[in-house]
Specification:
The chain starts with a helix and ends with a helix. The chain is an alpha+beta fold. The longest helix has 22 residues. The protein is built from 10 helices and 10 strands. The protein folds into 2 domains: about 130 residues, N-terminal domain of MutM-like DNA repair proteins (Alpha-Beta Barrel); about 140 residues, Orthogonal Bundle (Helicase, Ruva Protein, domain 3), CATH 1.10.8.50.
């Protein structure tokens, strides 16, 4: 799933490549992906791309004086920028993985795609993202804008396992499964540590780790082409998606805990005092 650094990089790429051009055509292939009906897609024709930014993990493309295309790429969605499209023909409904296509006046544009059978990509054409997009209206402060004291207060308001609290978008906006693994590794903290029991020193360490990991990832991502961002993200990971490989800090084997629809990765030596965490999936198999 694209998180804060990748969405920030996509916004930066669109600011460089698309802002200033006008919309030639906005095409919808997957009608379930477009969650709004006013304004209509046809109303965008001839309007300029005026801005590109984000709200947490939501991409926000400003179109004309008052319209915003807000996109949540979900787990399997992506933005593919095209310098030119192979065919001028409009998309047909159900055109494979392509959900939405935006064509610009210079022949370029981008596709919003989603792989797999579980379709969660969501796009909104709205005038006010802060009130008209439910996911945006519920967001907590941005992970790279929150102060240390506000960070501490928000974590302590939600007593739970720190991994889950860090990824709760109503607590902090922008952190997902991948970078939370990285933050906890840098902070040398168990993903199952309870936020209500964290000391002030641990809170400060966690905050500094969050700033370090997210800032470094943004710096590595911004400037990359959209097609290169996934590879850049994987290359920069210390523990996430590296199960069975050596920890880059201590050399211990990176371990995994699996859940119904996702997993987390960690280093026992760095984060849990050498004690492996129980993998509930494996425990059920042993029984």
């Amino acid at each position: 799933m694209p998180e804060l650094p990748e969405v920030e990089a996509l916004a930066a790429y669109l600011r460089e490549r698309a802002v200033g051009h006008t919309v030639q055509r906005f095409e919808v292939s997957s009608f379930s992906a477009l969650k709004t009906y006013d304004p209509a897609p046809s109303a965008l024709t001839g309007l300029p791309i005026t801005s590109a930014g984000r709200h947490g993990k939501f991409l926000d493309v400003g179109i004309g004086p008052e319209v915003h295309l807000v996109v949540h790429l979900a787990r399997a969605g992506w933005l593919h920028y095209r310098d030119a499209f192979k065919s001028p023909a409009p998309l047909k409904p159900g055109s494979g993985p392509i959900a939405i296509r935006l064509r610009l006046d210079d022949g370029s544009g981008f596709d919003l795609t989603e792989a797999g059978t579980q379709k969660s990509l969501a796009a909104y054409l709205v005038r006010d993202p802060l009130t008209e997009v439910p996911g945006v209206s519920r967001l907590g402060p941005d992970a790279l804008a929150v102060s240390r004291d506000e960070f501490a207060a928000r974590l302590r308001e939600r007593n739970g396992q720190v991994k889950g609290v860090l990824t709760d978008q109503e607590v902090l906006a922008g952190i997902g499964n991948a970078y939370s693994d990285e933050i906890l590794h840098v902070a040398k903290m168990s993903p199952f540590a309870l936020t209500g029991k964290l000391t002030d020193e641990q809170i400060t360490t966690l905050y500094e780790a969050m700033r370090e990991v997210e800032t470094d990832a943004v710096q590595r991502s911004v400037g990359q082409r959209a097609a290169e961002l996934k590879g850049e993200k994987r290359a920069g990971m210390r523990v996430h998606a590296r199960t069975g490989l050596p920890c880059p800090v201590c050399g211990d084997t990176v371990r995994e805990v699996s859940f119904a629809d996702k997993s987390l990765q960690y280093c026992a030596t760095c984060q849990t005092g050498g004690k492996p965490l129980a993998d509930r999936r494996l425990s059920k198999l042993v029984r």
